[in-house]
TrEMBL record:
PANTHER family: GDSL ESTERASE/LIPASE EXL3, SGNH HYDROLASE-TYPE ESTERASE DOMAIN-CONTAINING PROTEIN. This is Outer membrane esterase. Its EC number is 3.1.-.-. Belongs to the 'GDSL' lipolytic enzyme family. Residues 1-24 form the signal peptide. One of its GO terms (molecular function) is hydrolase activity, acting on ester bonds. The keyword Signal applies. Transmembrane segments: none annotated. The active site is at S34, D325, H328. Residues 381-657 form the Autotransporter domain. Keywords: Hydrolase, Signal. InterPro entries: Autotransporte_beta, Autotransporte_beta_dom_sf, GDSL, GDSL_lipolytic_enzyme, Lipase_autotranspt_EstA, SGNH_hydro_sf.
């Protein structure tokens, strides 16, 4: 009779995404078991003096040094740890969190990143007592959630809480089944089984299952040469393996569900990371991620990865394995998990660019309107004159501030058509409509296209040498092809979505013209802009482990400006130039919230801080073409923006009747 044997399991590793530069956290603090342990009890990865765990990769991404707590560092994770002291009094996350609280005076870094990942060893212990398995799993999941609540209560800014991956998928399950069935002869049977398993290609779940069954047949052949006995033993082993796998998988899902519900009750800024779903995707198609074998292991049976190197006798170099040893992932998987976690952490920062992008959409129409204002200031119209104008406005701004939403560019384009009417000698009233088509590349891994329709009312008031311009704008935007590009090992994946947005804005500009000569005027100008934007929440289209949902966003910008304007009349052309100093009185940061579609938990992050002060240099000209028709053109350049200066331009034509 083949019996099930209990198996101890640490947790599976976390992840980061190195595809974009980092918006810095001040610190990284880690609680967990062997999958996060960087030296308190060991380092469970082969060639551990060279290969890094997921949390070390994450720390490097954010420019943080992560060292074990035993060496005075902020990584409290310890191999073999459970969530509760009753299962492991020496190493558990309850004690880890309490130790951290005592060392910090109960205060967390609100700008720090925290990881709390535990549960594998708790599930292993639960599986030894089938009658109490669910109650043990419940106690551990609830306790782990309470510890996370303590971190948040102490002021932790963001806590990453990965799900426990399916413990039934580890090679240790196969070892346990063979050990239980073969007794003293198990060692040679396990050795033979893993020689078979390591030689197999497992491009999908079916081939993986076949490889496991074949390994069990090979194990059976070490006991007897009799085909009938071999077949009988094989059938028992397969049945025992399937039963143990099903029970372990159900227990894993139960633990994750209980923890999820408990975390919902605590609330807080929790980035729930679905390692379990990611792990299942890797098992289903390992080759897509750069792995060739998802069932075997690189280290020989009986050798833990913390003691394993490529020089260890029996180390397998023949394939790219998911596992280092019988329950710890290999370096490639740590890298995949790191990329995965980082992509989730970065997503709200990337998506916060939508709110800023909608504010950029009015720049083209405003630039065209500004050129029209310059025409009106150059030469007034007689009462009753009707004017029409139209033009193209565009701008480009690179992002180069080395943040998670950087290394891209904004490219805005708009067509504007307007009409105005000179009511009397002093007042002109007008309206315009505009269409926008913008392509925004916020960073190398996030982009979106935007279509917008604008409507605006404007007026121009002239009292002697004093002038006043005012306009109000409304814009309805449609964000299409919102795309996050994610790299997971060799897999390149895109998550896509779409949403809508709105914009309301108003400007008031005043100035005074001093006549210097008959061809030159100049004077001060003052401006204040009120802009409000809203972007609706949306859900990405697919249902993969990386698919996310995002909440609605609101933005508020108030920019004050003071400057000096020069206007000349040279022949038939009227060139002008101006320089303005601008200050942002409104939002200088934009936030967005999100979470995986597979969880109800969500978290918020704030994007890069915007510049508060900058300069704008502009030059343009009004060029009469006939008695009734004039052309205009202008170009402006910002200066002093750390995130990338913006170049704007417009060209158009006007006529009067």
């Amino acid at each position: 009779m083949v019996c099930k044997k209990i198996f101890t399991l640490s947790t599976l590793a976390v992840i980061t995404n190195f595809s974009s530069p980092a918006l810095a956290f001040n610190s990284l603090t880690v609680f967990g078991d062997s999958l996060s342990d960087t030296g308190n009890n060991g380092r469970w990865i082969w060639n551990n003096n060279q290969n890094k765990l997921y949390d070390e990769k994450l720390a490097a991404q954010y420019g943080i040094k992560l060292t074990p707590s035993d060496q005075g560092g902020s990584n409290y994770a310890a191999g073999g740890a459970t969530a509760v002291p009753t299962l492991n009094s020496s190493d558990n996350t309850h004690n880890q969190v309490q130790q951290w609280l005592s060392q910090t005076g109960g205060k967390a870094d609100k700008n720090g990143l925290y990881i709390h990942w535990v549960g594998g060893n708790d599930l292993a212990a639960a599986s030894t007592q089938p009658a109490l398995a669910r109650s043990i799993a419940t106690s551990s999941a609830v306790s782990a959630s309470a510890q996370i609540g303590a971190l948040l209560g102490a002021g932790a800014g963001l806590v990453v809480v990965p799900t426990v991956p399916d413990i039934s998928a580890t090679p240790f399950l196969l070892e346990s089944v063979i050990s239980a069935g073969f007794g003293p002869a198990a060692a040679s049977a396990i050795q033979a089984a893993f020689i078979s398993l390591n030689a197999a290609q497992t491009p999908d779940l079916a081939s993986r299952q076949q490889a496991i069954q074949q390994a069990l047949r090979v194990a059976s052949s070490t006991i007897s040469n009799n085909p009938q006995i071999q077949q009988s033993i094989t059938e028992q082993l397969i049945a025992a393996y399937d039963t143990a796998a099903a029970q372990s998988s159900m227990l894993t899902d139960y633990y994750n569900a209980v923890q999820e519900k408990a975390l919902e009750q605590h609330g807080g800024n929790i980035a729930r990371v679905d390692i379990n779903s990611l792990f299942k995707e890797i098992l289903a198609a390992p080759q897509a991620f750069g792995l060739s074998n998802s069932a075997g292991m690189a280290c020989p049976p009986g050798v833990a990865s913390t003691d394993c190197t490529t020089s260890t006798s029996g180390f397998s170099r023949t394939q790219d394995y998911l596992f280092s040893d019988h329950f710890h992932p290999g370096p490639q998987v740590h890298n995949i998990m790191a990329q995965y976690i980082q992509s989730i952490i970065a997503a709200p920062v990337q998506v916060s660019r939508l709110n800023q992008g909608i504010q950029e959409m009015v720049r083209g129409s405003r630039a065209t309107l500004d050129s029209r204002y310059e025409q009106l200031r150059d030469h007034g119209y007689s009462p009753g004159t009707l004017g029409i104008f139209g033009g193209y406005g565009g701008s480009y701004r690179p992002h180069n501030d080395n943040n998670e939403s950087s290394n891209g560019g904004e490219n805005t384009n708009s067509l504007t058509l307007g009409a105005d009417y000179q009511v009397n000698d002093n007042i002109l009233l007008g309206a315009l409509i505009a269409g926008s088509l913008d392509k925004q590349r916020a960073d190398s891994n996030f982009h979106y296209d935007t279509q917008g329709f604008q409507a605006a009312l404007f007026s121009h008031l002239r009292l002697g040498q004093t002038w006043l311009d005012g306009d109000v704008h409304y814009l309805a935007a449609n964000f299409t092809d919102i795309r996050r590009d994610i790299t997971l090992g060799k897999l390149a994946r895109s998550e896509e979505g779409k949403t809508d947005g709105k914009f309301w804005g108003a400007r008031l500009t005043a100035g005074y013209d001093f006549t210097v000569t008959n061809w030159l005027t100049m004077g001060p100008m003052f401006q204040y802009i009120w802009d409000y934007s809203q972007v609706d929440g949306y859900r990405e289209k697919s249902n993969s482990s990386t698919s996310m949902r995002f909440g609605s966003q609101n933005g508020h910008s108030q920019v004050g400006s003071t400057g000096w304007r020069f206007n000349t009349h040279i022949g038939g052309i009227n060139p002008w130039t101006r320089v303005n100093y601008r200050h942002q009185f409104g939002d200088d940061v934009y936030s967005a919230n999100g979470g995986l579609k597979s969880t109800n938990l969500g978290f918020s992050r704030t994007g890069e801080k915007q510049d508060k002060d900058w300069l704008v240099f502009a030059i343009g000209a009004d060029m009469p073409l006939s008695e009734t028709v004039s052309a205009f053109a202008a170009m402006s350049q910002t200066g002093g923006l750390s995130s990338g200066n913006q170049t704007s331009y417009n060209i158009g034509i006007s006529a009067k009747f």
